[in-house]
Specification:
The complex is a heterodimer. Chain A has helices spanning 16-20, 56-63, 72-79, 91-102, 137-140, 144-156, 175-192, 209-217, 230-236, 244-259, 278-287, 303-307, 315-334, 342-352, 385-392, 408-412, 415-424, 445-452, 463-481, 485-491; strands spanning 28-29, 32-36, 41-46, 51-55, 83-84, 112-116, 161-167, 195-201, 220-225, 264-267, 292-293, 340-341, 373-375, 380-382, 399-402. Chain A is of the alpha/beta class. In chain A, strands 10-9-8-7-6-13-14-15 form an eight-stranded mixed β-sheet, sandwiched between helices. Chain A has a three-stranded antiparallel β-sheet with strand order 2-3-4. In chain A, helix 11 (278-287) crosses helix 13 (315-334) and helix 19 (463-481) packs across helix 20 (485-491). The chains are: A alpha/beta, B alpha/beta. The interface between A and B is large, with 38 and 37 residues.
Chain lengths: 494, 398
């Protein structure tokens, strides 16, 4: 506030100067990182992930200890815990509290358990990394004895909230096992008393009234795939009859009827054919009554790309797609359509709130094993969904153990996993440690191992790094510069 | 007493006579067949002879008791002051016969009952509406301890204020426990500067009372330590309050934050909202409050007053910052006509009934029923924007 305009209080009160002078003339810097945001501005982040955008001369003044106490910028930096002066000592307590809050999910260990109940699928999507067209149930379905052990793992989690997600292949091809697992888990939970959510990730082609009745009775969520408009979706997801789109929509309608609108979600995967139609993809989601979309890039290390079954695309091509889609979504919101992009929403939660997010790919230490564990159909335990997909290509680097022989302590405490986690921490990884966006990003050892042969990775050429840095900077620029977009983005953190 | 005459509902009054007897806290009864009489004052509509004995006191409406034949039956009896003619079954009074003073401690029909535990305070806020008095006023806690068992068990909410109630130490904790014992259904709302919760032990002791519905409303005026300390005139207060908030949160005690808006707090209002959302997300409610121009606020009014229409931008930003972070935020003590309609949803009727008034100009206003109105003390100093609102939500041109 202006120092010339000192309010004149009644004589019974001490003057402002007596309190103001306490700041002193010098200040200390609290831990901070910074990075150019554009040609003349920098984004600086503090120890707990709060950010401030600074003009280059202001940043220089800050780190050269040349800022004048009392100015608006000085107060903003002080209140956001970028600097410390003689005024108060409480900043350290607050930073510690915020840091602890941001990392509070760590003590919970994983709460997400993936059950790959079968590898079989009746689709033959070219980008799919794992599915098999087979009638051989014994070769590609999870055995009940393995599922039983997997349930033991679920209940050994210290987390009070647990999510059990059934994956495939097409998990509905082994619905008997899903039914058995759900019954077992709920029975055990009568004494364990955890908050348990079930999700089935399915293409819905095989959904029927029996399955829906079971889902309704047990409050099971449905997560399906919808890539965009009919032609795009059907081109991406071939099946006999070329009717994947129709079957998906029919399935969504049925599932919504039976379970309620909020229990059915859809995911999209961006293929090369998607790149030039981001608006049409978003519009399709709006038309189908969804209130959000998760814009996901294809795993560039996947089976499909490696075998040349489909064309990949560069990170920059995907970023252009993402920016166009996001701009379209923001435009829709300005016209009154309430709709959000989930990847932006979770990054915004990391940027704008004091709370952590559990998203596997944006954790430090990495989310492998800590934010997610995958039980594969053949009884192996993997550190993540991508880790088991890598294994389908013959690389077992991220296999943590076997259901029939290993305990959760042995799996989560294995020197192998601990080594991977230790080197993955962005607080110390080369380049990440100095990155202004470190608090918002994370570490993906499976990605870097697959694309660069090294779990830490070389960030200068990393698509993961480029993608996240560009999106985060884009979001911060929108928050700072776009008066219309900013309140919309801020509403997504709720 | 001069201020008391201006309020909407008088809570104090002089009696026409004095007696040499100890002060006593009593429940009001209007039914003479009431069985428990030791701590009960019977209010009679008029002078009658057939009045049962045994009540702690008798009050007679519209009459002079000394004029009644057989007055000995009614001892001690008083004429009920007309300012307190609203007294009704279940209200609680404290009668000090030596001073001829009657204090209405609790009104059963009111939603705004609060217990002032002490006038002592360890802060000296420049806008304090209840300026601290350095006096031994422990009798107040004793009076409240006598009053609590007489209160209706269906009382929805009870405030605890001061001064600074936590200065009472064990007596404060004891009072919380008394409330829990006699009024387990009643929500307790304590107003505090939070500084003494800097001692973890006090936060732990409050938590250990294990009151089923207790919220502590703590004042915070800036995110810059010296600015808060200047406003509360107490070096080190900001750090104590912040550590106090962390201690209370650690002990699981529910917290509300209260921010009074004036010339010294407006400049950091938006920064403070962001600070709260980021550092104190565990508080369950944030109240952004208009100035009550009484006490120190009146003495400093020329320096402190900012017309609410001149801080619209700051108020809107602060509210949206908190609301976007899913924090429960309210605006207190602002009339609807001084707020932009975008903020109406956050405005609450926050002024206690006994000091809540409306102005003559409010007569023609379409939203008067939803509006919080004025402090009686604000009737003379208020926003230049006060104007009735038409049914279409626009100001009526004057």
């Amino acid at each position: 506030m202006a120092t010339i305009d000192v309010p004149q209080l009644n004589k019974a009160f001490a003057s402002e100067y007596r309190f103001r002078q306490r700041t002193g003339k010098e200040y200390a810097l609290l831990p901070l990182r910074f990075l150019p945001l554009d040609d003349d501005r920098y984004v600086a982040t503090n120890f707990a992930g709060e950010y401030i955008v600074l003009a280059r001369p202001d940043l220089q003044a800050l780190i050269r200890h040349e800022l004048v106490p009392q100015g608006g910028l000085y107060n903003a930096l002080k209140a956001k815990h970028f600097l410390l002066d003689g005024d108060s000592s409480v900043a350290i307590d607050l930073l510690a509290c915020k840091y602890r809050t941001k990392h509070s999910l760590l003590s919970q260990l994983t709460s997400l358990f993936l059950f790959v109940v079968t590898l079989r699928c009746e689709h033959s999507c070219p980008y799919c990394q794992v599915s098999r067209q087979s009638q051989d149930r014994h070769a590609f379905d999870m055995r009940r004895c393995d599922a039983e052990r997997a349930i033991d793992f679920v209940f050994s989690s210290p987390s009070e909230h647990v999510k059990v997600e059934f994956q495939g292949g097409e998990p509905l091809l082994n619905f008997d096992l899903i039914r058995w697992v759900v019954d077992q888990v709920l029975e055990r939970n009568e004494t364990e008393k955890k908050q348990i959510a079930f999700v089935i990730a399915t293409n819905l082609a095989l959904i029927d009234n029996d399955i829906l009745a079971f889902c309704k009775a047990h409050e099971i969520f449905i997560s399906t795939s919808l890539d965009g408009p009919r032609d795009l979706h059907n081109a991406n997801r071939p099946r006999p009859g070329h009717d994947s789109y129709e079957r998906t929509l029919e399935g969504i309608a049925k599932a919504r009827d039976a379970l309620g609108r909020d229990r059915v979600a859809a995911l999209m995967t961006t293929t090369r054919a998607s790149l030039n139609q981001p608006e049409a993809i978003v519009d399709e989601y709006v038309r189908q009554g969804f209130t959000s979309i998760f814009l996901r890039a294809l795993s560039p290390f996947g089976f499909a790309v490696k075998t040349g079954a489909i064309d990949g695309y560069t990170t920059d091509e995907w970023l252009a797609f993402y920016r166009r889609a996001l701009a379209h979504i923001l435009r829709l919101n300005m016209q009154g359509v309430v709709f959000r992009e989930e990847y932006a929403a979770l990054l915004l939660r990391k940027i704008l709130t004091p709370y952590p997010t559990g998203y596997v790919d944006l954790q430090s230490p990495a989310g492998i094993g800590l934010s997610c564990i995958a039980f594969n159909y053949e009884g192996s335990i993997y550190a993540s969904d991508e880790a088991r997909m890598l294994a389908e290509m013959g690389d077992f680097t991220f296999r943590l153990g076997r259901l029939e022989s290993d305990s959760i302590e042995a799996v989560l405490g294995s020197p192998k996993l601990l080594d991977y986690l230790a080197i993955s921490m962005t607080e110390s990884a080369p380049m990440c440690a100095d990155c202004g966006l470190q608090p918002y990003c994370g570490s993906d050892p499976v990605y870097h191992y697959s694309t660069q042969g090294d779990m830490v990775g070389r960030k200068t050429t990393s698509g993961f790094c480029r993608k996240n840095m560009e999106i985060i900077k884009h979001l911060i620029r929108l928050l700072e510069d776009d008066r219309e977009a900013s309140p919309i983005l801020r509403s997504w953190i709720r | 007493m001069s201020d008391m005459r201006q309020v909407a509902v008088a809570l104090h009054s002089r009696l026409s006579m004095t007696r040499d007897a100890e002060p006593q806290v009593m429940r009001i009864a209007t039914d003479s067949s009431c069985p428990s009489r030791k701590c009960t004052a019977l209010v009679l509509p008029s002078l009658t002879v057939d009045v049962p004995s045994g009540f702690a006191a008798y009050f007679v409406r519209d009459s002079k008791p000394e004029a009644l034949p057989g007055v000995s039956l009614l001892e001690p009896s008083y004429s009920l002051p007309s300012a307190l003619s609203y007294l009704d079954e279940g209200d609680i009074i404290r009668l000090n016969p030596r001073y001829g003073h009657l204090w209405v401690m609790y009104r059963k029909a009111s939603k705004a009952n609060s217990m002032l535990l002490t006038e002592q305070c360890n802060s000296w806020c420049v806008m304090c509406s209840q300026p601290p008095v350095a006096t031994d006023d422990r009798w107040l806690v004793d009076a409240w301890k006598s009053a609590i068992p007489l209160m209706a068990t269906d009382t929805v909410e009870l405030g605890i204020t001061g001064g600074e109630p936590t200065l009472l130490g064990d007596a404060f904790l004891d009072l919380l426990a008394t409330c829990k014992q006699h009024l387990p259904q009643t929500g307790l709302h304590v107003l505090s500067n939070g500084r003494l919760f800097n001692y973890l032990s006090l936060a732990q002791q409050v938590a250990r009372v294990d009151h089923p519905d207790l919220v502590i409303g703590i004042s915070l005026y800036s995110d810059i330590a010296w600015q808060h300390d200047f406003i509360v005139q107490s070096p080190g207060a900001f750090d104590q309050t912040i550590r106090g908030l962390l201690n209370l949160a650690r002990c699981g005690v529910r917290i509300e934050l209260r921010v009074v808006i004036h010339s010294l707090s407006v400049p950091r209002l938006v920064g403070l909202a962001a600070f709260i959302a980021r550092n104190l997300p565990f508080v369950e409610h944030v109240a952004l409050m208009g100035l009550e121009p009484i006490g120190f606020a009146r003495a400093n009014l020329a320096s402190l007053w900012v017309d609410p229409v001149d801080y619209h931008v700051e108020l809107e930003s602060a509210v949206s910052e908190l609301a976007a972070n899913s924090m429960n935020v309210s605006i207190y003590n602002h009339q609807l006509c001084v707020l932009p309609p975008t903020l109406w949803a956050f405005a609450r009727q926050s002024i206690s009934d006994w000091k809540n008034v409306y102005l003559p100009i409010c007569e023609g206003c379409a939203v008067r029923e939803r509006c919080g109105g004025f402090f009686h003390s604000a009737a003379r100093s208020h926003s230049r924007a006060i104007s009735p609102i038409a049914h279409d939500g626009h100001l009526v041109p004057s």
